[in-house]
Design goal:
single chain; alpha+beta; Serine Threonine Protein Phosphatase 5, Tetratricopeptide repeat; Immunoglobulin-like; 3 domains; four-stranded antiparallel beta sheet; 8 helices
Length: 345
């Protein structure tokens, strides 16, 4: 009887712990779903903010979504928002991270588009390099950009920015610097005299030097092979063909207009000499009437050809120029929120 009770007790413990274990194994799945839900909420918030032209807030929302559920596709949205917010340095970093993390999963057309946009944005940025105590945090316009020593200069948009260096809650430096395109602004922090009040450091030196290009620093074999021409040959063909067709069209229509006026004059002369010949019966009046009639007939042929051919050329040129404009616009970067990038939660 006692043995039977032990067996029943052991069965109870096995069933109980088994149920607890099953529930415990289900926790990560539930937590993952909650995580995805929160990421999707942040992503949807970012899209709404972007549509409302609140680009800075949209970038922050997209970054929250990425922090919650990192996926390389979200980096494209972050870069879009940062570009629209004119924080071009952060946009370049997001685009470069997008290419690095996406790798071969990114289709060639998207990769080429991003590379082209990076090249465009590099003309709109300079860099800030800071020399300070180790473990100091660099802030540019109140946004944290890294911990000193930094791996390299920090990209920022051209213009005036607030640079702050902080360590262990103490502000070592806070100053404004002006950044020029393609230039590196070097900020060196010199410690001030320590005091009971904790004196702030001052900028010992702020200098600007040309920013070395990637081509200067990178080995030849590491240079990206995929380069986009500024205007592709098909686009040039459309542009040249459109201009030539439009010019020929304008010339044809103009010729038609000239001969339309000449036709009216010759037709009036024909009617005048015809009526005169009917009255006088003179051969000279008959010849003048015949000549005016023949000239009017020739004028009518020329004006018809001019208007028809010129109109056709003008229409063709207009179509070619519209196609060229659409292709150029398509090749540029779109500010529309990316909805077809496969971002799923």
């Amino acid at each position: 009887m006692l043995m039977r009770g032990y067996v029943i007790y052991l069965c109870f413990l096995v069933i109980t712990f088994g149920a607890v274990s099953t529930r415990a194994q289900g926790i990560p799945e539930d937590a993952s779903e909650v995580k995805k839900t929160h990421a999707k909420m942040a992503f949807d918030e970012g899209r709404e903010l972007f549509t409302g032209e609140k680009y800075l807030e949209a970038a922050e929302a997209f970054r929250r979504a990425y922090d919650i559920s990192p996926t390389w596709r979200l980096l494209f949205n972050i870069a879009q928002a940062e570009t629209a917010a004119k924080r071009y340095g952060l946009a370049i970093e997001a685009f470069e991270q997008y290419l690095a993390e996406g790798g071969d999963e990114i289709i060639d057309s998207r990769s080429d588009e991003v590379m082209s946009e990076i090249r465009r944005l590099r003309m709109l940025v300079g860099t800030v390099a800071v020399t300070a105590d180790s473990d100091a945090v660099l802030y540019v316009d109140n946004a944290p950009r890294g911990v000193v020593p930094l791996p390299g200069p920090v990209r920022v948009s051209i213009g005036t920015h607030t640079v702050k260096v902080e360590k262990e809650g103490v502000v070592l430096l806070e100053t404004e610097v002006t950044v020029a395109g393609g230039m590196t602004t070097q900020v060196t922090v010199r410690d001030g005299d320590d005091s009971a009040t904790g004196a702030k450091s001052v900028a010992d030196e702020i200098t600007m030097t040309p920013e070395p290009s990637a081509a200067d620093n990178a080995p030849k074999e590491e240079t990206p092979q995929r380069q986009l021409p500024r205007v592709s040959k098909p686009q040039k063909g459309l542009l040249v063909g459109g201009i030539v067709s439009a010019v020929l069209g304008v010339a044809g229509v103009t010729l038609g207009g000239i001969y339309s006026k000449k036709f009216a004059d010759d037709n009036d002369n024909w009617e005048k000499y015809r009526d005169k010949f009917n009255t006088s019966g003179l051969l000279t009046d008959f010849n003048m009437a015949k000549k005016s009639h023949d000239d009017a007939w020739t004028d009518s042929i020329v004006l018809k050809v001019g208007f028809i051919a010129g109109g056709a050329c003008l229409a063709a040129g207009t179509v070619l120029l519209i196609l060229h404009a659409k292709r150029v616009k398509k090749s540029r970067f779109s500010w529309a929120p990316a909805t077809g990038l496969g971002v799923t939660f």
